[in-house]
Automatic annotation (TrEMBL):
The lineage of its organism: Bacteria, Bacillati, Bacillota, Clostridia, Eubacteriales. This is N-acetylglucosamine-6-phosphate deacetylase. Keywords: Carbohydrate metabolism, Hydrolase, Metal-binding. It holds the Pfam family Amidohydro_1. It is an enzyme of class 3 (hydrolase). Belongs to the metallo-dependent hydrolases superfamily. NagA family. InterPro entries: Amidohydro-rel, GlcNAc_6-P_deAcase, Metal-dep_hydrolase_composite, Metal_Hydrolase. It comes from Eubacterium callanderi. It catalyses: N-acetyl-D-glucosamine 6-phosphate + H2O = D-glucosamine 6-phosphate + acetate. Its EC number is 3.5.1.25. Residues 45-369 form the Amidohydrolase-related domain.
Amino acid sequence: MILKNALIYTPENTFKKGDLAVNGSVISEPAAGDSKIFDASGLYAIPGLTDIHLHGCMGHDFCDAAEDTLEAIAAYQARSGVTGFVPASMTFSEKKLSGIFENAAHQEQEAGAMLLGVNMEGPFLAEKKKGAQNARYLMPPDIPMFRRLNAISGGRIKLVTLAPELAGASEFITALKDETVISLGHTEASFETASNAFDLGASHVTHLFNAMPPFNHREPGLIGAAFDHPGVTAELICDGVHVAPAMVRAAFRLFSAERIVLISDSMRATGLDDGDYTLGGQSVHVHGNRATLADGTLAGSVTNLMDCLRNAVAFGIPLADAVQAAAVNPVRVIGESDRLGSLEPGKLANMVLLDKSLNVVKVFIKGKSMV
C-alpha cells in the first residue's frame, strides 16, 4: 500500500510532502507497481502516539486485572490514534499489585493499541504528595519487592515512580537504574535531594508540576533539578485541568520539545459520561473534564492522549513539537525507538492520518487499518 501526497512527519521534527509505503507490518520505500493507493492529500501523517502513563478508559482500569481490561483499553486507544500504551498501577498491597502485573504478563493484544509494558506508580511515594493514591499502602522503596513484581510481570515494568527523600531511595535508584526507568514524583524533595537522585541514575519525572513542590525562585525543587539535568525527561498532562496553558508553554520552553513527554493520566471515566467512578479503590466524581476525590483532589484525567496533543496545539505549541512529545519521546523513554516513533523504512507501520483540524482520519497498527 502507498499513501500518496501526505504531509509526513520527519525525524527532523518537520513536515514534508511525500509518499509512504507499507509492506506487511512495516514501513518501506515506495515501489512502482503497488496497486493499492490511498490518496492522503492534505492529511498529516504522524507516528502513532504512545501513552506511557494512563490508568484506564471506557469503564475499565488497569488495576481491575480483569480478563478483558487490557483488550478494552487497547481498542479505545486505537480508535483515538494512540497505537501503543503503558498502563499505570496505583498504590496497593504487594499481593494486589502481583495480581495486576500477572494479568499484564499473560495478555497479548491481537488487535488495538500495543501493550508496551507497565508503569508502576506507587507505593514508594510521599504521603503529603500522594494525590489520589491510597495512603494506607504507602511504603519506602523496596528493592526485593520491585524485583518480585517485575518478575511476575514478565519483566514488563518500564517505569517506577518514587519520592527520592524516602529512606532507601538512593539505594533503590543505584540498584535498579539499569533494570527500569526511575521516575521521580509524588514527592516533597528539595532541589538538592532531587539532584542527587538524578546524579545516581533517576531519569524521568512523573506528571511535571503535579504532586510536587512548585518551581520557586529560591527553592527550585524537583522541577529545577530536572531542568539542570539535560538527560531527564518530564511527563506533562495536557488536559487543560492539571496544568494551565501558560505553564504548558513554559514547560516546552524550559525543557524543549525533546524532553517533554505528553501523557493522559486517564482514568476509567475517559470516553464515558459524567458520574461517579473509582480510581485506586477510591471514589471519584467526574464533571466535564475534571475528575476529583471527595476532598477535591484531582484523580487522574478524563482526556485521551490525542486530545492532549490537540490541547497542546491549541495552547500554542507547534504541531511538530506536540507530535514529538506524544509519539517520539515516549518510545525513547521506554526503549522502543528501534521499532516505533518514526515513519522510517523498517519501523512498524504504526501511524495516524489527521486532517487539518487534527481529526483522526485513519489509524494503522502494524500496517492494519484500525479506523
